């Protein structure tokens, strides 16, 4: 889209919005700053509820395609595919909106303003909401965040398909139970290097329409009322032109939790004056008093309303039906066969093969008579979907997927094994009340699929119903409850075992790595997850997922949860080895790199172009994720950091040339003032994994290395 034309259209929308706002009374203006904005019949304004969710599918409003949770989508390392999924989500969103409007249904979760994606950094695996994110790396999060926003908002020259929202600005990543009072202290360097890049990319590149503030304070100021974040950084430095929304009921935290104000009027004044336009909650009712008492200028309120109505106009909500092509999207696309096929593809692409000793996988169906499927996640629908989910017309659990795949040819035995986190499955029973059944299934089976992990009842948002742990955060990285005991009992049977982990975060499965021949990380793989897992297990598909987070050996490897310094955190700053490193994932086939080159060893303003020929040297079609990392060779700089990715699909024996262009900034680091600098020469690494020792041990492969000279 032509930028000048785009600017002209936005200016026209803003003028229309300003003309509309000028006709409102103060009371009407104030009501329009609430997320459930009422109708103003005399001005032809319909009621509109701003609150909608689309983290991995249209959520909380009936039937929709339930894609893998965001952390699983991140494991695809495939930005083109992320946009394809987001485009499908907004297609369903528009289809549902069209029929809802036809029925005059303007309830919550019925609008076109989707409060997704979550581009916070998953800095600590204990954080319960980490599975809503795209992982621990700012580069990967930026690329996937940008493409998700573009998929949601579309590329139409006249209208937004839907409005995306980058949240939670900024640095929010736990602990959940103190988020309403917590002050996250982050250095300028960590802000620039880790916490802000994905937000900046979503604003500058994807032109995200909405930014949501976080509950916590950042460096002393509540995020939903921070001048530094909302005005100085977002508006002035990055040129953001959309609207800012508070997290839900976050503004009352100013006086109730953070104690930076004394009254609700002071809180709403702080939020509005510093750039928050929309209140998810009801506290902005106090804006009338704030304006009347001179604490907020009415002109600032008008500015907020112009921002809000401009968004609605960009969506075509003030134009006659049919003027936007999106008005014609029919309800029949929802949960359609193409959507289900895309969902299955997503689930297959997100699965990560962590271990495959002696090529135990894929399993050969023809050599099996009985398969045992054991564990609390074997038949657990909740472990398919994560949180902020929609409702699928059908869910296929791991057990069901295996049963469907094997049909009448192979008998499938199953046991829950144990409760997900409690000491017994039935309240009146003794502890460990399923262990005899576990032993019986093992005795009868040729191979055991152990389905362990977590679900969104254990890791999630503070206040969510069903959280068993620390308000959704994990107390440690262990398998909860009796799962480890059941897993060891299974292994004692002497039968071959495959461990399937369903979780939204890293678990310290150190014992399993030492004792179980095959391990798969399935994340929360969506409504089609069981079918996808069966196809991976039995070799119909080749695993291609890579880890978007580090798997640690134990909880002791982590700094304090409340410490927001990046020192010692994630693959970029940790000193020791990982159990499973960031960027790691095995395949059933093999890939060979040749003719790996850089166009120059001297950094230029145009950056550096990497080319490599990648060949599938195995017997299965598969996908390789070409990864480039940069290590700046100067004191106190991060470990090698991901700076480029490219997915390549290859048939057996097929070769393709891959090109990755790394901009100049990829070879810089941020100084203590948060400014980009080039303090030394760099090493550039190219391959299918990160350049760390542990990845080399696990894969038996190394990566190509280049010395890059830098003249700042």
Q: Can you describe this structure?
A:
The chain has 3 domains: 3-320, Glycoside hydrolase, family 3, N-terminal domain (TIM Barrel, Alpha-Beta Barrel); 337-549, Glycoside hydrolase family 3 C-terminal domain (Rossmann fold, 3-Layer(aba) Sandwich); 591-708, Immunoglobulins (Immunoglobulin-like, Sandwich). It is built from 21 helices and 23 strands. A 6-stranded mixed β-sheet has the order 9-14-13-12-10-11, with helices on both faces. α4 packs parallel to α5 and α5 packs parallel to α7 (197-204). The chain is globular, with a radius of gyration of 26 Å. The two termini are 34 Å apart. 56% of the residues are buried.
DSSP helix fraction: 25-40%
| Main sheet characteristics | 6 strands, mixed
Number of DSSP helical runs = 21
Helix/sheet category: alpha/beta
Per CATH, the superfamily of the largest domain is Glycoside hydrolase, family 3, N-terminal domain
Total strands: the figure is 23
- Poorly predicted sequence stretches spanning 5 or more consecutive residues: none
Per the principal axes of the C-alpha atoms, what is the gross shape?
globular
Approximately what portion of the residues adopt beta-strand conformation? 15-25%
Tally of distinct domains: 3
Q: In the CATH scheme, what's the topology name of the largest domain?
A: TIM Barrel
Main sheet strand line-up: 9-14-13-12-10-11
CATH architecture title of the largest domain: Alpha-Beta Barrel
């Amino acid at each position: 889209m032509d930028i000048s034309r785009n600017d002209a259209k936005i200016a026209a929308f803003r003028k229309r919005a300003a003309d509309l706002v000028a006709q409102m009374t103060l009371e009407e203006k104030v009501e329009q700053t609430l997320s459930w904005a009422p109708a103003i019949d005399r001005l032809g304004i319909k009621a509109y509820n701003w609150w909608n969710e689309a983290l991995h599918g249209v959520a909380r409003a009936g039937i929709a395609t339930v894609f893998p949770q965001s952390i699983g989508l991140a494991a695809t390392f495939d930005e083109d595919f992320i946009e394809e999924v987001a485009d499908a989500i907004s297609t369903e969103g528009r289809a549902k909106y069209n029929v809802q409007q036809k029925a005059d249904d303007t309830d919550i979760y019925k609008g076109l303003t989707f409060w997704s994606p979550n581009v916070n950094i998953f800095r600590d695996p204990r954080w319960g909401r980490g599975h809503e994110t795209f992982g621990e790396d700012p580069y990967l999060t930026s690329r996937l965040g940008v493409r998700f926003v573009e998929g949601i908002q579309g590329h139409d020259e006249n209208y937004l398909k839907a409005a995306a929202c980058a949240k939670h600005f900024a640095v929010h990543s736990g602990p959940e139970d103190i988020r309403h009072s917590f002050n996250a202290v982050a250095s300028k360097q960590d802000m620039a290097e880790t916490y802000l890049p994905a937000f900046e990319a979503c604003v500058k590149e994807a032109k995200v329409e909405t930014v949501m503030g976080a509950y916590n304070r950042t460096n002393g100021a509540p995020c939903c009322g921070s001048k530094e974040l909302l005005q100085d950084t977002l508006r002035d430095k990055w040129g953001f032109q959309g609207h800012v929304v508070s997290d839900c009921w976050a503004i009352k935290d100013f006086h109730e939790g953070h104690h930076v104000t004394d009254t609700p009027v002071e809180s709403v004044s702080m939020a509005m004056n510093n750039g928050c336009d929309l209140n998810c909650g009801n506290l902005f009712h106090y804006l009338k008093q704030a304006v009347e008492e001179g604490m907020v200028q009415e002109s600032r309120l008008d500015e907020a309303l112009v921002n809000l109505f401009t968004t609605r106009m960009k969506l075509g909500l003030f134009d006659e039906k049919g003027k936007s092509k999106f008005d014609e999207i029919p309800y029949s696309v929802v949960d359609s066969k193409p959507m289900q096929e895309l969902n299955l593809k997503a689930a297959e692409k997100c699965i990560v093969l962590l271990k495959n000793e002696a090529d135990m996988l894929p399993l050969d169906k023809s050599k099996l008579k009985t398969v045992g499927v054991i564990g609390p996640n074997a038949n657990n629908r909740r472990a398919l979907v994560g949180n902020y989910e929609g409702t699928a017309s059908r869910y296929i659990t791991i057990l069901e997927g295996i049963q469907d795949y094997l049909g009448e040819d192979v008998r499938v035995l199953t046991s829950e094994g144990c409760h997900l986190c409690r000491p017994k499955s039935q309240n009146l029973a003794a502890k460990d009340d399923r262990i005899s059944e576990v032993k019986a299934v093992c005795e009868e089976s040729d191979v055991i699929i152990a389905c362990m992990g977590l679900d969104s009842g254990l890791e999630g948002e503070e206040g969510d119903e069903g959280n068993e742990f620390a308000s959704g955060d994990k107390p440690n990285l262990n398998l909860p409850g009796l799962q480890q005991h059941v897993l060891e009992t299974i292994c004692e049977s002497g039968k071959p075992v495959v461990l399937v982990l369903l979780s939204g975060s890293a678990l310290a499965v150190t014992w399993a790595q030492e004792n179980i021949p095959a391990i798969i990380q399935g994340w929360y793989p969506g409504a089609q997850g069981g079918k996808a897992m069966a196809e991976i297990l039995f070799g119909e598909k080749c695993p291609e997922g890579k880890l978007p987070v580090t798997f640690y050996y134990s909880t002791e490897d982590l700094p304090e949860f409340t410490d927001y310094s990046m020192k010692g955190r994630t693959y970029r700053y940790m000193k020791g080895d990982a159990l499973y490193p960031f960027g790691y994932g095995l395949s059933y086939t093999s890939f060979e790199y040749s003719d790996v080159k850089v166009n120059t060893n001297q950094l230029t303003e145009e950056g550096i172009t990497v080319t490599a020929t990648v060949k599938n040297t195995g017997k299965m079609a598969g996908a390789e994720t070409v990864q480039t990392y940069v290590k700046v060779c100067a004191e106190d700089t991060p470990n090698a950091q991901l700076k480029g990715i490219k997915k390549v699909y290859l048939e057996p024996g097929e070769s393709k040339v891959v090109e990755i262009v790394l901009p100049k900034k990829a070879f810089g680091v941020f100084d203590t003032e948060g400014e980009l600098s080039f303090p030394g020469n760099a090493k550039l690494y190219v391959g299918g994994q990160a350049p760390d020792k542990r990845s080399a041990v696990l894969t038996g492969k190394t990566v190509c290395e280049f010395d890059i000279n830098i003249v700042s």
